[in-house]
Design brief:
About 10% of the residues lie in helices and about 45% in strands. It has about 110 residues and is mainly beta. The radius of gyration is 14 Å and the shape is globular.
């Protein structure tokens, strides 16, 4: 694998995060299928909780999200059983709102638009 992801997350930490409870299977080039539990989501990335993925910072996974489709994400940070991923690209706002509407059907838990 190359030098890893060359990412800048300084400005992205202020993005609105939406609580979700979404489990999916991510694809890793060397490790194959990984089970992820996404607990919050923004237009820039997501946080997972639980399980040992066996990944290092900068490694990439491919995931499939409703309304978005297939998208690559880079592991930015690890802390205990939590991990933060940054999407390879920013998700368009209309697609992101459709995603949130599907993954977080309780309007009280959605951020105001």
């Amino acid at each position: 694998m190359g030098l890893g992801a060359q990412l800048s997350v300084t400005d992205l930490r202020r993005s609105s995060r939406h609580p979700v409870d979404f489990r999916l299977i991510a694809e890793h080039r060397q490790r194959g299928d990984l089970h992820l539990h996404i607990v919050n989501l923004s237009a820039h990335g997501f946080m997972t909780q639980g399980g040992d993925m066996g990944l290092s910072r900068g490694e990439r996974v491919n995931i499939r999200l409703p309304h978005i489709g297939r998208i690559e994400a880079h592991l930015i940070w690890l802390s205990g059983d939590r991990a933060g991923f940054q999407f390879e690209r920013i998700i368009r706002m209309n697609e992101f709102m459709g995603l949130i509407d599907e993954l977080q059907p309780n309007p009280r838990l959605r951020n105001r638009r």
